[in-house]
Design brief:
The complex is a heterotrimer of chains A (241), B (410) and C (265).
Chain A (H helix, E strand, L loop, with lengths): L24 E5 L7 E7 L2 E12 L12 E8 L15 H17 L8 E11 L4 H15 L9 E8 L2 E4 L3 H4 L5 E7 L4 E8 L2 E2 H32 L4
Chain B lengths: L2 H4 L4 H12 L15 E5 L6 E6 L2 E12 L10 E8 L13 H16 L9 E3 L3 E13 L4 H15 L1 E2 L2 E4 L2 E4 L8 E2 L7 E8 L4 E4 L3 H4 L4 E7 L4 E8 L5 H25 L6 H5 L5 H7 L7 H14 L9 H6 L22 H6 L9 H11 L11 H21 L1
Parallel strand pairs in B: 4-6
Antiparallel strand pairs in B: 1-2, 2-3, 3-6, 5-6, 7-10, 8-9, 11-12, 11-13, 13-14
Chain C lengths: L8 E2 L4 E3 L5 E2 L3 E4 L2 E4 L3 E6 L2 E6 L11 E9 L3 E5 L6 E4 L15 H5 L1 H4 L5 E9 L5 E4 L6 E3 L3 E4 L12 E4 L3 E5 L4 E5 L5 H7 L21 H19 L6 H11 L7
Parallel strand pairs in C: 3-7, 10-12
Antiparallel strand pairs in C: 1-6, 2-5, 4-5, 6-7, 8-9, 8-11, 9-10, 11-12, 11-13, 14-17, 15-16, 16-17
Helix pairs in contact in C: 4-5
The chains are: A alpha+beta (241), B alpha+beta (410), C alpha+beta (265).
Amino acid sequence: MADFEYLSPEGLRSDGRRPQELRVLSCNISHCLQADGSAYLQQGNTRVIATVYGPHDVSRRSEAQHDKAFINCQFSMATFSTSERKKRPTGDKSCLETSLALKKTFEAAILTDTYPHSKIDIFVQILQSDGSDKAVSINAITMALIDAGIPMKDYVCATSVTLINDTPIVDLNYFEERGPGPELIVGTLPKSGKIVFLQVNSRLHIDNMEKVLKEGMNGNQRVHTILDTLIKKHLEKSILT
Amino acid sequence: MNRSRASAISNCEKEFTLEAIQERKRLDGRSVYDYRQVFIKPSPVTHGNVLVTIGETRVQACVGCEVVVPRPQRPTDGLLYFNVLPSPMAAPNYDIGKSSLTMRVERLLDRCFKESRSLDTESLCIIAGQKVWSIRVDIHILNDSGNITDCCVMASFCALKHCRRPYVTVSGEHATIHPVSEREPVPLNIHHTPICITFGFLSEGNYLLVDPSIEEEKVLTGHLYIVMNIHREICTMQLEGVALQHEEVVKCTKIAMTKVNELNKSINKYMGIRTNAKNMDEDGQSILTNVLKETTLQIDNIQTAANVQEDRKNGKDIIQEVQEDVYEIMYPMEEEPPVTEEEEPPKTKPRDKDTDEEEEVTVTLTKDDITGLTSIETGLTSNTGEQTSVNRNSNKETSGTRGRKRRKRK
Amino acid sequence: MALKGEPHYVAPGDVITANLGFMRGHGTYESDGKLLASVAGVVERVNRLLCVHPLKSKYNGEIGDVVVGRIIEVQQKRWKVETSSRLDSVLNLSSINLPGGVLRRRSAEDEVMIRDYLKEGDLISAEVQQVNSDGSLSLHTRSLKYGKLTEGTLVTVSPSLVKRCKNHFHNLLCGASLILGNNGYIWISPIILDDHQQEQMRFQLPSTPGSSSVKTVTHVATIEERETIARLRNCILALAQSRILLYDTTVQYAYDASLKYEVKE
C-alpha cells in the first residue's frame, strides 16, 4: 500500500472523485413497518440501516428523567460488513464508544424536553462498511428520527475529512480512511452551523484544523441539501388525501 | 440507598454554580481558563508506577509488560492495552466494572497512544510473528474530584514514560530476556507527548471552562476533549453533548495549545526530564526519548531545583510551584536504584510495610490515599475556599490523622 | 408563509415565520426570534397558532378522545393501559363502571377483585379523561359504550390516519361495528347489541365475590359476520397504505368498492 496514490496528479481520487466530491447518497425512508421510524441510507458502498422506536415508556425506573427523554443508542456492525468476518458485532469497545458518542450527539439535537419520563431507542447497523461509517450512521439516524416524527432542532449531517498533500478530502472511502492522513469526522446542524459531533483521529496539525473543519462543514451543507430534498419528496408522496 | 442518588446535585447548588460561572468566577477561586495544581509522583521503587493528581483528583497508573504472540494481522506490532479501574471509593456514584466512563476513557487512551502513534508499537516486536511485548496500563482512579479524563491520560503517559522493560537480545530465532540485575532495563519508545485538555460547557455552550471540578461537572451540559502534543498536533478530539460554532472549536484548540505547553513543562519537571530549547524545536522524534537515552545525564536535586527557580522567573504561575517538602520526595529517575534494591529515601515510605502486601497497587494505604478516602466521607470540607498550598497541607494533616484513627478502630 | 390551498412542507430547522405574532404549537420551536419547525410535515395554521404535524408520530392524546387499548399491568387500584401513546395510560378503578349500577359504592373487595374485572392482555375501549402533567393519559370507561372488547379483530394504523370525529362508534350498513380509536387502534366486531343487552353483557360478575367469574355472554360470530370483518380489516389496511383518512364514510366506500372482489384463500 506504500505507493498507493490517494490523489492523482490531475487531482482525482482513487475512485475518480474530486477532492470535495461526495459519494452518491440514496435513502429509503420508512422501509421498516414495525419501527416508529426507519431509514436505509447508502453513501457510495457504505450501507447503513437505522431504526427508531419511541418515545415510549422507560423500561427501567432508573432511566426515567423528570425533565427530558432518555436516549438509548446502539451502534453495531454486521458480522459480514467488513472484508474480514467480525466475531463480535456489538460487544466491541469501539462500537460501544461510537454508541455513546452518537447518543450524546443526538441528545444535543433532539428536543428532549418535549418528552419527559420517556425513552427513545435508536438502533443503527452498518450493513456494508466502506469508510465514513460514523458519519453515514449519523445521516441515517437523522432520517430515521425525522421519519419517526421526533422533534429535532435541525438535521444532523456528518462527513469525514482527511488531509492528503495539504488538500482536504471529503467523504472518505475505506482506503482513504486507512490512509496516512488524519481523520476528522464532523457533524453539524447545517442551518445554524453548530457542531454537535467532532472526532479527530491521528495527528492533525493545529494550523490545518480550521481548513479541514471548514471543508467538513461545507460537505455537511451538501449532505443537508440532498437529505432535505429526499425528505420533501417523501412528504409530498405520502401526504394525507 | 441508591448510590447514584448521592451524587445528584440540588437545585440551589446548581443555580449557584451556574451563576458564579456566568460572572466568570469559580468555586475554588480559579479563573475560567486556570488549571488546577498538577502533581506527579513516580514511584521510586517500581518502574512504570506513577501517581498523578490534579487538584484533589488522584489517579495511579501502573504499567506491566509480558511477552506474547502477536496478532496474525499485525505480526510486527506489539500490543498496548489500557484498563481503567474506577475504585468504588473514588466517588459515590462509581460502580465496579465497566461503565460508560471507563469505556470512554479507555477508547480515548487508545486513540491518544495507539492511533496517533505516540507509543511506537513496532519497537515492541521481539521476533516478528512470534514474540512481541504486550504493554498493559492499569489506571486506578483513586479519587474523582473532576476532570478524570485529563488525569488518566497524564497518568498513562507518565507511567509509560517511567516504565522500563527488560533488555532483550535476539540471535536468530532465539531471544534472551535479561533479568534486571543482569542488564539495565530499557525505556519504551515514545514519539510524542499526548496531553489531554478537557473543556466543560454550560448552558447550551454559552459558557466555557477548563479543567472542571466535580461540582462543576454536575452542572455541565457538554464536554470537549482535546488531546494535543507540543508539536501543535491534535492527536485526538472528541465533542460531547453540546452544539458549538466552529470558531469556538478553533478557539478551544488554541487555548488547549497553551495549556499543553504548561502541562508539558510540569510533566518534564516532575518526571525529571530536562528539556532545552534546541530539542524543543526538533520535529518527529521526541526530544524526551532522546534526553532519556542520554543515561549519562545526571540531574540531581539541586539542578532540578534550579529549574524550578527558572520557571518562577519566567512567571509561569499557572502550574503552581512545588512546595519544598514535596520536592524532597521527588527522586529523579536517572538516579533510581534498581528494583531489587531495598534502599529508599526515608520520606517516601512511611507506610511501605502496608504497600508491600499488595505489590503494584500501592493504592489503598498510602497517606495520600487516606486523604482521598476521608475527603469523600467528609463531603465538601476539603473543597471549600481557596486551595492554597498551606490549606492543602493542613488538610492532609488532619485527614491523615483521621485516617489513622479509622484504621486503629478496625 | 403558506398560501391557502397549497401545502407548505417543512423539515426540521426550516424557518416557518420570522413574525413573532404567532403562537407556537406542536412541532415547532423558537430560536433567535424565529419560529422553526422541529419535525417534517405540513404547516397548519389555526388563527394565530402554528403547528406542524409529522407524517408519523406517537399518539398525542386529547381530552375526550376515544381510544382502544390493551391492559398491560394490574396494580393496586388501577390498570396500566397500552394505547400507543408515548407513556403508558392509566385506568383507575374509580373510573370504571362497576357491575351493579352506577350508584354502587366501591369497596375494599373491589380492590381485591381488580383482576376479575380486567386482567393483563384484555382489550378495552375508553375515553381520555385527563392528560397528566407528564403527558400520560388517564382513561375512563364510565359510559355504557366503553368497556372490555371481546369478539372482533384489532387493526393497528398510524394515529394520524384516524380523523377526529363526533362519533367514533359506527354500526356499518354491511353488518359490522367499528370503533375507530384516535390512537390508531381500530376495533371491528359484529354488530353491537342494543343498550339493554349490552349492560347485561358487560362485566357480568358473580353474585358472590371470590367464586370463578364468567365475564361475558359468549356470542359466536357467524361465518358471514367473520367474512365481513375480514373484508373490513383489509379495506382499512388498504386505505392506510394509500394514506387516506379513516372515518365511517371512507371505510364504507372502501368496503363497497371491495365487494366486486371475491373472497379467496
